[in-house]
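Lecture 7 notes: from sequence to structure.

We start with a single chain of 195 residues. Read the sequence below before looking at the structure.
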Amino acid sequence: MRILPFGNANDSLQLQQSVLRRILREVWESETREPEKEKIEKGQGMGWKTVIKPEDSIFSELVRTLAGWKCVRCGRQHEIKQNTLDCSHYFGRNHKSVRFDLDNADALCRYPCHQGSDSTNPERFGWEYQKGIGGFKNWSADGEYTLYKKKQLGEQRFSALIIRSEGICKMTSFDIKELRKSLREMLQKAKGGIL
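Now the structure, written as tokens:
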């Protein structure tokens, strides 16, 4: 391996190690990649696309199966695999540390319970817009979804969820492969009524 001229010998060694780790990771990932493909869901007339990764699909089905394909807000029963019941994340999917946390997810009707039926009328907002936590980020009182989560989890578990949501989570392809395996096992147990 060629030594690159850098600030000092230690910097050069760190750079070489970093490059070597990246190359090894790429080789390992290319050899262990699962044949599953990501789904692309087109936004309804919005011109944007959402990439749905296999682990997201499995987790979503797990949450809806555990809820008995029933909305936790209104109680409406949905047909299995019908595209009208969503997996709602209290802390959005961009919060990687709780993205696959069952405490952070609920089964909600797409309309009106999750997204709402009228985005201009606060009385008709879905829970997606009622996540405010009183005294946190300029909210004066808890939103309806927050009240539900506190009742569902209890104050202590809800506080723990908030703390977990602020964590940093970086997953390797091996971690993702193991996550998929674990989620599939949980889903099979849930379908069999074991979970």
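The longest strand covers residues 85-89. Keep this in mind for problem set 3.
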